[in-house]
Amino acid sequence: MSLPERHRRKLRQLGHALKPVVLVGGQGLHDALLAELDATLAHHELVKVRVSAGERSERDAMIATLCSACAAELVQRVGHVALLYRRHPDKPRIKLD
Fold first, then answer.
1. DSSP helix/strand/coil, 15
2. What is the pTM of this model?
3. Least packed by Cβ within 10 Å: which of 3, 30, 79, 90?
């Protein structure tokens, strides 16, 4: 699922004021973190995640794993922060069209 550019633009505008609510630290990715991200995406749909990994390639791999594990779409990545979106199947809170 790939978002059109107009939807990405709107999601970036909405995500600008958000603070990172999920923090990936030194322990890396584990089941509890993935469950928390899944629950947060189910409730908020748009979430900022801070990934504290040293190398850029490590951060990219972690973000890709987060997206695939939670069926989320990467909207934007700036430095250590990624903006993830997953539409709620029954009651979407963010109207894109």
1. helix
2. 0.92
3. 90
